[in-house]
Amino acid sequence: MTDQNVDRGEIQAASSQFLSGLFKGKAQSDDGIAGGKSSLTWAVHISVAFLVALWLFPTVGLFVSSFRTADQISASGWWNSLFPTEQIIQLRTGGADAATQLDGVFVVEGNLLTDGEGPGTEATISAFGVSSRAIGAFQAGETAPAGDGEELTLMADGSYRYTSVEEPGRRGQRVFVTATTPPEFTLDNYRTILFSGQGQDNMAKAFFNTLTVTIPATIIPILIAAFAAYALAWMDFPGRALLIAMVVGLLVVPLQLALIPLLKLHLGIGIGKGYLGVWLAHTGFGMPLAIYLLRNYMVGLPKDIIENARVDGATDFQIFVKIILPLSFPALAAFAIFQFLWTWNDLLVAKVFLIDSTGSTTVMTNQIVELLGTRGGNWEILATAAFVSMAVPLAVFFAMQRYLVRGLLAGSVK
Amino acid sequence: MDNPAIQGLITIIVGVGGCIGYFYFSNQILDKVIFPARGENAGRNINRANMVRPWLFLFPAIFALGLYLGYPVFETLRLSLTDRVPGGYEWAGLSNYSQMFSEPKFWEAIRNNMLWLIIVPAVSTGFGLLAAQLTDRISWGNVAKSLIFMPMAISLVGASVIFKLIYDARPADTAQIGVMNAVWMQFEGGIGSILFLQLLPSLILLCFATFVAYFGYVFLRPMWQRDGGHSAALLPLRILVAVAAVLLVWECASSALGLWTASFPYGEPQQWLTIPFWNSFLLMVVLIWIQTGFAMVILSAALRGIPEETVEAAIVDGANPFQIFFKIKVPQIIGTIVVVWTTITLTVLKVFDIVFAMTNGQWETQVLANYMYDKLFRANDWGVGSASAIIIMLMVMPILVWNVYNVRKEMR
Questions:
Q1: Average of pLDDT values for A39-49?
Q2: d(CA A195, CA A202)
Q3: Per the CB < 8 Å rule, is B134 touching A48?
């Protein structure tokens, strides 16, 4: 946002004047303004912080969820995952084969948290119970009677001593444990999605498919549109105004209209469903915005340079390649980002022109929609898949934001 | 050749090389072979070459535009008037349209699209204006801006996943992992519930209704003030706005009243996306979340472009902050607000991914774009599908005409 930074000073001056105006009524003198100003500034700071938090909250939720295991996700909301969570887990003590006989009673000793299916050493137990009707009846460290002369003593660290007059059952005593587990995050989901997943759970192929769609579909329209934009901006010929108006008109034509006729055309001339078709479609659909953006930018380039070059005998082709293209870099970058984000995030065009019945050319957006249908409750898979697909556009967004902003401004504000 | 990566690389090379080659060699041939700038006709030849050259530059673009956007408009129109029969097409007149008009799903889509068209642009522009106004006056405003702007980079499908998690529901005795149900389960019918679920929403609804009524009044006022000569041309528009305003106010008032008579199912997690009517709003939230950043960025630039003198003069004249904002700043950026509004309107008309991914038009959330996709690729009914595409085109038409009119005016 450099061009915005240029006049930052002025704006701050203007806004501080505005603010001082706000407190005209309250302030006794000019000196009194400072205090009032800072309290209003605080209100602005807080409201912006609230707005930003509101806008970030959804994304953060999915992001955090992508680092949690399926059990953690269903045990508590993601907003709790940053703090230790209290879970109720059903565990079993060792069974008959772990028991030793001591003075006529059977004794089983061990650690509930680390043995078998226990949640691990990091958890601590606060309460436990031996019946599903009284899950938290006893504090850690107490001894609970479990009926028929059985007793269970359970410590906070999970170590237990279970005694029984009769020989214990083979599966051991059922214990309900209220355990506090520290926040824990894992990269396993990403491993599954990117490398080890089977079938739909593996996004690696879809990732490369998306990349394959995106890159040619970004580069080719820029080149074609740049020449056209130069002609519309700096060459004089009859019908120019009409052409510009047509481009502006086509800018808003919904691409839904184009689906059937073009699919028919593609099938008719033998392109069929595939990469070539989707590249061509994206090139066509991106063309009006490309021409419009680039022409708007090129018209603003200094006239002198171009006319001097003409006087010096440069041809239009030379002027375009040597002067216009380098000078138009910001606009080219802006459109490239638009087109990249749009093709990367696209679902409709890919579904219609690319993905055939074998599904081997599926793109990430399509695969995520399919996951939503088949794995609707498996948030660890969904969240990770969604984040894998978002990572590249987000990186591009943050790296190239200032071109994006410039492009937006050129594209809509006149 | 089978590897798509190699295929992609070849396409880039062929595509880019082909483009450069085309432009370079066509210019060369024009200058050296067809109209050489030498010999007795040198001057005339240069002129002729310069007359042809723009079309060389334009040809690929015009070809792509014509084939991929121009031709489909007419072809879709033709398809919407024909039926597919074995071995070809058969003229069907308007039967596709009448079939479509008799489907309740179509009217549901139209109704929902109208709601989307009113609410999403209004709320996004409003929030965008608020965010622009606020972030412009703090030191970390640019960081805040880029964070609010960030959803722009997220695909509609990704955003749908994000919001599906928010709306997720789990059985009542387990932990809620969707924020909305987690908050919902906190309400139990006490004073807090009345405050947040009945009083606050009805206040918001009434405020909105008042705003709409005022807007309608401002819009209608010239009708009985008989001083503008141009009011006759705008009369249908004014009546349309008035009718829409009355309907909206009525809707708001009746839903505000409904809030007090409804009984809420406290303590039961709700499948939010299956609650008819309200679920459409939950889908709109996704698009509002994405579009607010766009509105903010553009409106922020417009606000910065306002001449300081006007604001200073207002301060000197003793205007209060609200007056400064609504009477000095907003009128000066009204053109930009209109541009933002129409741009978001266009996005809304084409919205497909959100509905497709989240509800697929079930539970009365259908919108036109998804209805069309359903008809084209599920029911395989190209006639009705094309007819609904033409309806979308008709809805876009006013914006198209308006844009073209503006550009023509500007270039004169």
A1: 82
A2: 7
A3: yes
Looking at residue A5, what is its pLDDT?
Answer: 40
Residue B203 burial by Cβ neighbours in a 10 Å radius (0-12, 13-18, 19+): exposed
- Whose tokens are 């509905």? That residue is B355
Residue A243 or residue A150, greater confidence: A243
Amino acid at A378: N
Q: Which residues of B touch A408 (CB under 8 A)?
A: 294, 297-298
Chain B residues closer than 8 Å to A45 by CB: 138
Would you call A289 an interface residue with chain B, using a CB distance cutoff of 8 Å? no
Determine whether the interchain pair A383/B146 forms a contact, defined as Cβ–Cβ distance below 8 Å: no
| Whether ipTM exceeds 0.90 | no
Please identify, in words, the CATH class of the domain defined by B104-176+271-412. mainly alpha
Is B246 an 8 Å CB contact of chain A? no
Distance (Å) from the C-alpha of residue B353 to the closest C-alpha of chain A? Answer: 7
A132 vs B394, higher pLDDT: B394
Distance of CA A294 to the CA centre of its chain: 30
Contact A372 B75 (CB under 8 A): no
Could you tell me the two tokens for A382?
């969904």
Supply the DSSP symbol for A192: I
The CATH code belonging to domain A191-412 is 1.10.3720.10
pLDDT at position A412 is: 58
Please tell me if residue A41 touches chain B, with a CB cutoff of 8 Å: yes
CB-based contact B68 A284, cutoff 8 Å: yes
Closest partner residue to B142 (CB to CB) among A1, A224, A315 is: A1
SS (H, E, C) chain B: CCCHHHHHHHHHHHHHHHHHHHHHHHHHHHHHHHCCCCCCCHHHHHHHHHHHHHHHHHHHHHHHHHHHHHHHHHHHHHHHCEEEECCEEEECCCHHHHHHHCCHHHHHHHHHHHHHHHHHHHHHHHHHHHHHHHHCCCCCHHHHHHHHHHHHHCCHHHHHHHHHHHCCCCCCCCCCCCHHHHHHCCCCCCHHHHHHHHHHHHHHHHHHHHHHHHHHHHHHCHHHHCCCCCHHHHHHHHHHHHHHHHHHHHHHHHHHHHHHHCCCCCCCCCCHHHCCCHHHHHHHHHHHHHHHHHHHHHHHHHHHCCCHHHHHHHHHCCCCHHHHHHHHHHHHCHHHHHHHHHHHHHHHHCCCHHHHHHCCCCCCCCCHHHHHHHHHHHCCCHHHHHHHHHHHHHHHHHHHHHHHHHHHHHHC
Instruction: Find residues 330-349 of chain A whose CB sits inside 8 Å of chain B.
Output: 341, 344-348
Residue-range domain boundaries for chain B: 4-78, 104-176+271-412, 186-266
Distance of CA A167 to the CA centre of its chain: 56
CB contact under 8 A, A317 and B69: no
Rounded-to-integer distance, Cα A339 and Cα A337, Å? 5
> In degrees, to the nearest 5, what angle opens at C-alpha B148 toward C-alphas A49 and B115?
115
Instruction: Write out pLDDT tens, residues B65-85.
Output: 888 888 888 888 888 888 777
A83: left (phi over 0), alpha (psi -120 to 50) or beta: beta
Contact residues on chain A for B400, CB-CB shorter than 8 A: 249, 252-253
Residue B2's pLDDT is 54
Q: Is A45 on the interface with B (CB under 8 A)?
A: yes
- Beta carbons of B396 and A252 less than 8 Å apart: yes
A51 or A12: which carries more pLDDT confidence? A51
